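Figure 6 in text form: structure in, sequence out.
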Protein backbone atom coordinates (compact mmCIF):
# COMPACT_ATOMS: atom_id res chain seq x y z
CA UNK A 1 0.00 0.00 0.00
CA UNK A 2 1.22 3.48 -0.87
CA UNK A 3 0.81 6.25 1.68
CA UNK A 4 -0.56 9.69 1.01
CA UNK A 5 -0.66 12.65 3.40
CA UNK A 6 -3.12 15.38 2.45
CA UNK A 7 -2.88 18.69 4.27
CA UNK A 8 -5.81 21.09 4.02
CA UNK A 9 -5.82 24.59 5.46
CA UNK A 10 -8.56 26.63 7.08
CA UNK A 11 -8.94 28.91 4.06
CA UNK A 12 -9.78 25.93 1.85
CA UNK A 13 -11.95 24.14 4.38
CA UNK A 14 -14.12 27.13 5.32
CA UNK A 15 -16.51 29.45 3.52
CA UNK A 16 -15.91 33.15 3.06
CA UNK A 17 -17.72 33.71 6.36
CA UNK A 18 -15.32 31.44 8.22
CA UNK A 19 -17.73 28.49 8.57
CA UNK A 20 -16.88 24.87 7.78
CA UNK A 21 -17.94 24.15 4.18
CA UNK A 22 -19.76 20.82 4.53
CA UNK A 23 -20.42 20.56 0.80
CA UNK A 24 -16.69 20.78 0.15
CA UNK A 25 -16.01 18.19 2.86
CA UNK A 26 -18.33 15.83 1.02
CA UNK A 27 -16.38 16.21 -2.24
CA UNK A 28 -13.12 15.78 -0.30
CA UNK A 29 -14.40 12.49 1.14
CA UNK A 30 -15.32 11.30 -2.37
CA UNK A 31 -11.75 11.93 -3.54
CA UNK A 32 -10.26 10.08 -0.57
CA UNK A 33 -12.58 7.16 -1.29
CA UNK A 34 -11.36 7.14 -4.91
CA UNK A 35 -7.63 7.12 -4.09
CA UNK A 36 -8.10 4.47 -1.40
CA UNK A 37 -9.71 2.27 -4.04
CA UNK A 38 -6.49 2.66 -6.06
CA UNK A 39 -4.26 1.37 -3.27
CA UNK A 40 -3.47 4.45 -1.19
CA UNK A 41 -3.62 4.68 2.58
CA UNK A 42 -4.55 8.27 3.46
CA UNK A 43 -3.77 10.51 6.41
CA UNK A 44 -5.40 13.94 6.50
CA UNK A 45 -3.72 16.84 8.27
CA UNK A 46 -6.29 19.55 8.75
CA UNK A 47 -6.64 22.97 10.28
CA UNK A 48 -10.11 24.09 11.31
CA UNK A 49 -10.67 23.63 15.04
CA UNK A 50 -10.25 27.33 15.71
CA UNK A 51 -12.57 28.22 12.81
CA UNK A 52 -15.22 25.81 14.16
CA UNK A 53 -14.93 27.33 17.62
CA UNK A 54 -15.14 30.90 16.38
CA UNK A 55 -18.28 30.01 14.43
CA UNK A 56 -19.94 28.41 17.46
CA UNK A 57 -18.96 31.40 19.61
CA UNK A 58 -20.46 33.81 17.09
CA UNK A 59 -17.05 35.26 16.23
CA UNK A 60 -16.72 34.25 12.56
CA UNK A 61 -14.86 36.64 10.31
CA UNK A 62 -11.46 38.13 11.06
CA UNK A 63 -9.21 35.83 13.07
CA UNK A 64 -8.60 37.21 16.60
CA UNK A 65 -5.07 38.17 17.58
CA UNK A 66 -4.96 37.35 21.28
CA UNK A 67 -3.78 33.92 22.41
CA UNK A 68 -6.44 33.17 25.07
CA UNK A 69 -9.25 33.68 22.52
CA UNK A 70 -7.54 31.45 19.96
CA UNK A 71 -7.01 28.71 22.53
CA UNK A 72 -10.58 29.02 23.84
CA UNK A 73 -11.92 28.80 20.27
CA UNK A 74 -9.80 25.70 19.65
CA UNK A 75 -11.21 24.09 22.80
CA UNK A 76 -14.80 24.80 21.76
CA UNK A 77 -14.21 23.80 18.15
CA UNK A 78 -12.28 20.55 18.51
CA UNK A 79 -15.36 18.35 18.98
CA UNK A 80 -17.25 20.11 16.19
CA UNK A 81 -14.24 19.71 13.94
CA UNK A 82 -14.04 15.95 14.59
CA UNK A 83 -17.78 15.52 14.03
CA UNK A 84 -17.70 17.36 10.69
CA UNK A 85 -14.99 15.05 9.35
CA UNK A 86 -16.55 11.93 10.82
CA UNK A 87 -19.98 12.64 9.31
CA UNK A 88 -18.61 13.42 5.84
CA UNK A 89 -16.54 10.23 5.66
CA UNK A 90 -19.13 7.97 7.27
CA UNK A 91 -21.47 8.55 4.33
CA UNK A 92 -18.82 6.86 2.16
CA UNK A 93 -18.28 3.94 4.50
CA UNK A 94 -15.02 5.26 5.95
CA UNK A 95 -14.06 5.53 9.61
CA UNK A 96 -12.06 8.53 10.80
CA UNK A 97 -10.12 9.20 13.98
CA UNK A 98 -8.82 12.39 15.56
CA UNK A 99 -5.10 12.51 16.39
CA UNK A 100 -3.82 15.60 18.21
CA UNK A 101 -0.10 16.26 17.95
CA UNK A 102 2.38 19.01 18.72
CA UNK A 103 5.84 19.56 17.31
CA UNK A 104 7.20 18.78 20.76
CA UNK A 105 6.23 15.16 20.13
CA UNK A 106 9.18 14.89 17.77
CA UNK A 107 11.67 16.00 20.41
CA UNK A 108 10.93 13.08 22.72
CA UNK A 109 11.80 9.72 21.19
CA UNK A 110 9.23 7.77 23.25
CA UNK A 111 6.39 10.11 22.30
CA UNK A 112 7.56 10.07 18.67
CA UNK A 113 7.48 6.28 18.50
CA UNK A 114 4.06 6.11 20.18
CA UNK A 115 2.64 8.60 17.67
CA UNK A 116 4.13 6.63 14.77
CA UNK A 117 2.81 3.31 16.10
CA UNK A 118 -0.67 4.77 16.61
CA UNK A 119 -0.84 6.10 13.06
CA UNK A 120 0.54 2.83 11.65
CA UNK A 121 -2.11 0.79 13.49
CA UNK A 122 -4.94 3.12 12.44
CA UNK A 123 -3.90 2.69 8.81
CA UNK A 124 -3.71 -1.08 9.23
CA UNK A 125 -7.28 -1.00 10.56
CA UNK A 126 -8.48 0.90 7.48
CA UNK A 127 -9.08 4.14 9.38
CA UNK A 128 -8.46 7.59 7.90
CA UNK A 129 -6.66 9.53 10.66
CA UNK A 130 -7.45 13.24 10.84
CA UNK A 131 -4.40 14.87 12.41
CA UNK A 132 -4.59 18.33 13.91
CA UNK A 133 -2.26 20.52 15.91
CA UNK A 134 -3.38 20.62 19.54
CA UNK A 135 -4.08 24.34 19.38
CA UNK A 136 -5.55 24.47 22.88
CA UNK A 137 -2.12 23.95 24.45
CA UNK A 138 0.39 24.50 21.64
CA UNK A 139 1.07 28.23 21.91
CA UNK A 140 4.08 28.28 19.59
CA UNK A 141 2.32 26.59 16.69
CA UNK A 142 -0.66 28.97 16.76
CA UNK A 143 1.60 31.98 16.87
CA UNK A 144 4.36 31.10 14.42
CA UNK A 145 3.35 28.31 12.06
CA UNK A 146 0.53 26.35 10.61
CA UNK A 147 -0.20 22.76 9.76
CA UNK A 148 2.17 22.74 6.76
CA UNK A 149 4.89 21.97 9.29
CA UNK A 150 2.72 19.33 10.93
CA UNK A 151 1.96 17.80 7.54
CA UNK A 152 5.68 17.38 6.85
CA UNK A 153 6.15 15.88 10.31
CA UNK A 154 3.39 13.32 9.76
CA UNK A 155 4.68 12.44 6.28
CA UNK A 156 8.14 11.72 7.72
CA UNK A 157 6.59 9.89 10.65
CA UNK A 158 4.79 7.32 8.46
CA UNK A 159 7.30 7.31 5.56
CA UNK A 160 4.72 8.65 3.10
CA UNK A 161 5.11 8.20 -0.64
CA UNK A 162 3.52 11.56 -1.45
CA UNK A 163 2.31 14.68 0.35
CA UNK A 164 -0.32 17.02 -1.09
CA UNK A 165 -1.00 20.48 0.32
CA UNK A 166 -4.38 21.86 -0.69
CA UNK A 167 -4.18 25.64 -0.70
CA UNK A 168 -6.21 28.68 -1.75
CA UNK A 169 -3.77 29.25 -4.63
CA UNK A 170 -2.84 27.11 -7.67
CA UNK A 171 0.73 26.56 -6.49
CA UNK A 172 4.01 28.47 -6.28
CA UNK A 173 4.33 31.44 -8.63
CA UNK A 174 7.48 33.33 -9.60
CA UNK A 175 5.79 36.51 -8.34
CA UNK A 176 2.68 37.45 -6.39
CA UNK A 177 -0.19 36.72 -8.83
CA UNK A 178 -2.53 39.12 -6.99
CA UNK A 179 -0.14 41.98 -7.72
CA UNK A 180 1.64 40.94 -10.92
CA UNK A 181 -0.47 40.00 -13.93
CA UNK A 182 2.59 38.40 -15.54
CA UNK A 183 3.25 36.01 -12.65
CA UNK A 184 3.78 32.45 -13.87
CA UNK A 185 3.07 29.19 -12.09
CA UNK A 186 6.23 27.19 -11.34
CA UNK A 187 5.20 23.64 -12.24
CA UNK A 188 8.26 21.80 -10.92
CA UNK A 189 10.96 22.60 -8.37
CA UNK A 190 14.06 20.42 -8.16
CA UNK A 191 16.13 22.66 -5.87
CA UNK A 192 14.91 25.09 -3.24
CA UNK A 193 17.23 28.08 -3.44
CA UNK A 194 16.90 31.72 -2.43
CA UNK A 195 14.89 32.55 -5.55
CA UNK A 196 12.27 29.96 -4.59
CA UNK A 197 12.12 31.21 -1.00
CA UNK A 198 11.82 34.77 -2.29
CA UNK A 199 9.01 33.87 -4.69
CA UNK A 200 7.07 32.31 -1.81
CA UNK A 201 6.60 35.59 0.04
CA UNK A 202 5.03 35.41 3.48
CA UNK A 203 1.38 36.37 3.48
CA UNK A 204 -1.27 34.11 4.96
CA UNK A 205 -5.03 34.15 4.52
CA UNK A 206 -7.58 35.69 6.88
CA UNK A 207 -8.54 32.39 8.53
CA UNK A 208 -5.13 30.71 8.39
CA UNK A 209 -1.84 31.44 10.08
CA UNK A 210 0.71 30.44 7.45
CA UNK A 211 1.61 31.27 3.87
CA UNK A 212 3.61 29.90 0.97
CA UNK A 213 6.88 30.21 2.89
CA UNK A 214 5.81 27.55 5.42
CA UNK A 215 4.89 25.27 2.52
CA UNK A 216 8.27 25.70 0.85
CA UNK A 217 10.03 25.05 4.16
CA UNK A 218 7.97 21.87 4.51
CA UNK A 219 8.99 20.88 0.96
CA UNK A 220 12.64 21.38 1.87
CA UNK A 221 12.40 18.92 4.76
CA UNK A 222 10.32 16.42 2.78
CA UNK A 223 12.96 16.53 0.04
CA UNK A 224 15.58 15.39 2.53
CA UNK A 225 13.34 12.46 3.44
CA UNK A 226 12.75 11.58 -0.23
CA UNK A 227 9.04 12.48 -0.15
CA UNK A 228 7.68 14.54 -3.08
CA UNK A 229 5.23 17.34 -2.38
CA UNK A 230 2.46 18.80 -4.53
CA UNK A 231 0.97 22.20 -3.73
CA UNK A 232 -2.25 22.89 -5.58
CA UNK A 233 -5.61 24.64 -5.36
CA UNK A 234 -7.81 22.76 -2.91
CA UNK A 235 -10.98 23.74 -4.73
CA UNK A 236 -9.71 22.35 -8.03
CA UNK A 237 -11.87 19.44 -9.16
CA UNK A 238 -10.25 16.06 -8.39
CA UNK A 239 -7.06 17.71 -7.13
CA UNK A 240 -6.21 14.81 -4.80
CA UNK A 241 -7.02 12.13 -7.38
CA UNK A 242 -4.91 13.83 -10.06
CA UNK A 243 -1.96 14.40 -7.74
CA UNK A 244 -2.01 10.77 -6.58
CA UNK A 245 -2.11 9.62 -10.21
CA UNK A 246 0.97 11.69 -11.04
CA UNK A 247 -0.91 14.08 -13.30
CA UNK A 248 0.36 17.64 -13.65
CA UNK A 249 -1.38 19.75 -11.04
CA UNK A 250 -0.10 22.80 -9.20
CA UNK A 251 3.59 22.79 -8.24
CA UNK A 252 5.57 19.59 -7.76
CA UNK A 253 8.56 19.68 -5.41
CA UNK A 254 10.48 16.66 -6.63
CA UNK A 255 12.41 14.33 -4.34
CA UNK A 256 14.74 12.03 -6.22
CA UNK A 257 16.22 10.18 -3.25
CA UNK A 258 16.73 10.08 0.48
CA UNK A 259 19.63 12.32 1.48
CA UNK A 260 19.90 10.79 4.95
CA UNK A 261 17.67 9.34 7.64
CA UNK A 262 15.43 11.83 9.39
CA UNK A 263 15.68 10.73 13.01
CA UNK A 264 13.29 12.21 15.60
CA UNK A 265 16.11 14.47 16.80
CA UNK A 266 16.95 15.71 13.31
CA UNK A 267 13.30 16.11 12.40
CA UNK A 268 12.87 18.54 15.26
CA UNK A 269 15.94 20.50 14.17
CA UNK A 270 14.75 20.64 10.54
CA UNK A 271 11.12 21.54 11.22
CA UNK A 272 11.52 23.93 14.12
CA UNK A 273 11.05 27.62 13.40
CA UNK A 274 13.23 28.59 16.32
CA UNK A 275 16.51 29.46 14.61
CA UNK A 276 18.42 31.88 16.85
CA UNK A 277 21.05 32.89 14.34
CA UNK A 278 23.12 31.82 11.37
CA UNK A 279 26.58 30.47 10.63
CA UNK A 280 28.21 31.16 7.27
CA UNK A 281 30.79 28.57 6.20
CA UNK A 282 33.49 28.57 3.55
CA UNK A 283 33.43 26.36 0.44
CA UNK A 284 35.65 23.69 1.98
CA UNK A 285 33.46 23.33 5.04
CA UNK A 286 30.31 23.14 2.89
CA UNK A 287 31.81 20.38 0.79
CA UNK A 288 32.86 18.44 3.90
CA UNK A 289 29.35 18.71 5.36
CA UNK A 290 27.57 17.72 2.14
CA UNK A 291 29.85 15.03 0.74
CA UNK A 292 31.73 13.58 3.69
CA UNK A 293 29.10 13.67 6.43
CA UNK A 294 31.45 15.70 8.62
CA UNK A 295 30.71 17.77 11.67
CA UNK A 296 31.14 21.54 11.42
CA UNK A 297 34.39 22.76 12.97
CA UNK A 298 34.84 26.41 13.84
CA UNK A 299 37.87 26.68 11.52
CA UNK A 300 35.47 26.36 8.58
CA UNK A 301 33.26 29.24 9.73
CA UNK A 302 33.45 32.57 7.89
CA UNK A 303 30.87 34.57 9.88
CA UNK A 304 28.23 34.29 12.58
CA UNK A 305 25.06 36.32 13.13
CA UNK A 306 22.26 36.43 15.67
CA UNK A 307 22.33 35.86 19.40
CA UNK A 308 22.50 32.09 19.79
CA UNK A 309 23.64 30.17 22.86
CA UNK A 310 24.91 26.64 23.40
CA UNK A 311 22.08 24.29 22.37
CA UNK A 312 20.20 26.74 20.13
CA UNK A 313 19.17 25.93 16.56
CA UNK A 314 21.07 27.84 13.87
CA UNK A 315 20.79 28.10 10.10
CA UNK A 316 23.94 27.21 8.16
CA UNK A 317 24.63 29.25 5.01
CA UNK A 318 27.21 29.12 2.26
CA UNK A 319 29.14 32.21 1.22
CA UNK A 320 26.40 33.21 -1.26
CA UNK A 321 23.85 33.31 1.57
CA UNK A 322 22.09 30.08 0.53
CA UNK A 323 20.68 28.12 3.47
CA UNK A 324 21.75 24.51 2.89
CA UNK A 325 21.69 23.08 6.42
CA UNK A 326 20.44 23.56 9.95
CA UNK A 327 21.87 22.34 13.22
CA UNK A 328 22.23 22.69 16.97
CA UNK A 329 25.13 24.86 18.09
CA UNK A 330 27.50 23.51 20.74
CA UNK A 331 28.91 26.97 21.52
CA UNK A 332 27.48 30.46 21.84
CA UNK A 333 27.74 33.15 19.18
CA UNK A 334 30.26 35.06 21.33
CA UNK A 335 32.53 32.01 21.66
CA UNK A 336 32.32 31.23 17.95
CA UNK A 337 33.04 34.84 17.00
CA UNK A 338 36.19 34.90 19.15
CA UNK A 339 37.44 31.80 17.35
CA UNK A 340 36.91 33.07 13.79
CA UNK A 341 40.04 33.18 11.64
CA UNK A 342 42.15 31.11 14.03
CA UNK A 343 43.83 27.82 13.14
CA UNK A 344 43.39 24.69 15.24
CA UNK A 345 46.88 25.19 16.66
CA UNK A 346 46.05 28.73 17.70
CA UNK A 347 42.83 27.56 19.33
CA UNK A 348 44.67 24.77 21.16
CA UNK A 349 47.12 27.27 22.68
CA UNK A 350 44.32 29.56 23.93
CA UNK A 351 43.01 28.47 27.33
CA UNK A 352 39.63 30.13 26.68
CA UNK A 353 39.16 28.61 23.23
CA UNK A 354 41.06 25.32 23.43
CA UNK A 355 37.86 23.24 23.64
CA UNK A 356 36.84 24.52 20.19
CA UNK A 357 40.01 23.09 18.63
CA UNK A 358 38.59 19.57 18.90
CA UNK A 359 34.88 19.84 19.68
CA UNK A 360 32.72 20.73 16.65
CA UNK A 361 30.58 23.84 16.59
CA UNK A 362 27.77 21.65 15.17
CA UNK A 363 28.07 17.88 15.54
CA UNK A 364 26.91 15.76 12.60
CA UNK A 365 24.35 14.02 14.84
CA UNK A 366 22.76 17.46 15.35
CA UNK A 367 22.98 18.48 11.70
CA UNK A 368 20.45 18.31 8.85
CA UNK A 369 21.63 18.84 5.27
CA UNK A 370 18.84 19.98 2.95
CA UNK A 371 20.52 18.94 -0.32
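Output sequence:
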Amino acid sequence: MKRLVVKIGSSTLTTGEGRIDHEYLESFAQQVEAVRAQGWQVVVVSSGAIACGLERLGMSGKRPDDMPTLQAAASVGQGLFASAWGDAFASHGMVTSLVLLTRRDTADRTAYLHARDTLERLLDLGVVPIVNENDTVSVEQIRFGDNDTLGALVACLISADLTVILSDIDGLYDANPSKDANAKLIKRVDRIDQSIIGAAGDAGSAMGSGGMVTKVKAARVLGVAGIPLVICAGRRENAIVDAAAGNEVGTLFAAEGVAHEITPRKLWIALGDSSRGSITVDAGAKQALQRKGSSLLVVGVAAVEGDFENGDIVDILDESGYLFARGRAAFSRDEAELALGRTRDELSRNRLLSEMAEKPLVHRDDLVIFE
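Caption detail: Residues 141-145, 202-210 have pLDDT under 50 and may be disordered.
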